């Protein structure tokens, strides 16, 4: 039994050591892990591995979302204060993103417009944020322009959100055949709840009942397996899907 226990401790230390090498952590961790395999592994897991894990990132997103519900303008105030104190391009980008997350799409579009005239105008994240803001303002052609630039110059930048926003922008400019193809391609490639929900929202809007019914059933099946964290993270897409479904029933 002691041999088995030591083997488990060594395996845990080895797991942590692989994480050290693959993620570029300081190499002194290797000395700690193999010099003190039990204590070193526990310290590494708490100090490095867990804070970088998907679970931790997801928890931070939920906490941040909850904070925005309680005080929607908190991030905007902080970003505006930082920009007024130090009007750099980075702080201007931060303010634009905060405005968009707070639901003030017109102000966000204006702020992103200023970013697009600055030294980081070709930055894919600025173009992506501007496209989101323009889409919320129903400036679909403007959104499509910047999304196409992102896809052409940075094809791996946020592939799923860019694909879904592109499909929505195509629908907004009346290119429904291209929008259908874009939504279908995104659903096939990513297969996520959001991809199915966005496709279903479009299908409800254009009256494609068979498509919307299939996608709704698949989205419901995915949602039935969610834990509390997944439910919080997908809440915005779920609300939009429910609203689209309710609107289609009234027609």
Automatic annotation (TrEMBL):
<keyword id="KW-0812">Transmembrane</keyword>
<keyword id="KW-1133">Transmembrane helix</keyword>
<feature type="transmembrane region" description="Helical">
    <location>
        <begin position="27"/>
        <end position="50"/>
    </location>
</feature>
<keyword id="KW-0472">Membrane</keyword>
<dbReference type="Pfam" id="PF14559">
    <property type="entry name" value="TPR_19"/>
</dbReference>
<protein>
    <submittedName>
        <fullName>Tetratricopeptide repeat protein</fullName>
    </submittedName>
</protein>
<dbReference type="InterPro" id="IPR011990">
    <property type="entry name" value="TPR-like_helical_dom_sf"/>
</dbReference>
<dbReference type="InterPro" id="IPR014562">
    <property type="entry name" value="UCP030959_TPR_rpt-cont"/>
</dbReference>
């Amino acid at each position: 039994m002691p041999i088995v226990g030591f083997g488990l401790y060594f395996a845990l230390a080895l797991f942590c050591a692989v994480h050290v090498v693959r993620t570029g952590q300081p190499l002194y961790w290797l000395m700690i892990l193999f010099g003190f395999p039990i204590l070193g592994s526990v310290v590494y897991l708490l100090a490095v591995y867990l804070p970088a894990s998907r679970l931790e990132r997801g928890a931070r997103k939920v906490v941040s979302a909850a904070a925005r519900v309680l005080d929607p303008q908190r991030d905007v105030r902080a970003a505006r204060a930082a920009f007024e104190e130090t009007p750099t391009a980075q702080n201007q980008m931060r303010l634009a993103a905060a405005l968009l997350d707070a639901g003030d799409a017109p102000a966000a579009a204006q702020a992103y417009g200023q970013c697009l005239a600055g030294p980081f105008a070709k930055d894919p994240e600025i173009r992506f944020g501007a496209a989101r803001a323009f889409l919320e303002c129903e400036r679909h052609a403007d959104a499509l322009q910047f999304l196409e630039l992102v896809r052409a110059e940075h094809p791996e930048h946020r592939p799923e959100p860019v694909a879904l926003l592109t499909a929505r922008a195509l629908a907004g400019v009346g290119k429904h055949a291209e929008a259908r193809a874009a939504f279908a391609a995104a659903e096939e490639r990513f297969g996520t709840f959001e991809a199915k929900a966005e496709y279903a929202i479009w299908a409800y809007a254009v009256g494609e009942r068979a498509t919307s019914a299939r996608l709704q059933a698949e989205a419901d099946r995915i949602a039935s397996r969610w834990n509390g964290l997944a439910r919080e993270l997908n809440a915005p897409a779920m609300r939009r899907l429910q609203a689209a479904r309710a609107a289609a029933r009234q027609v």
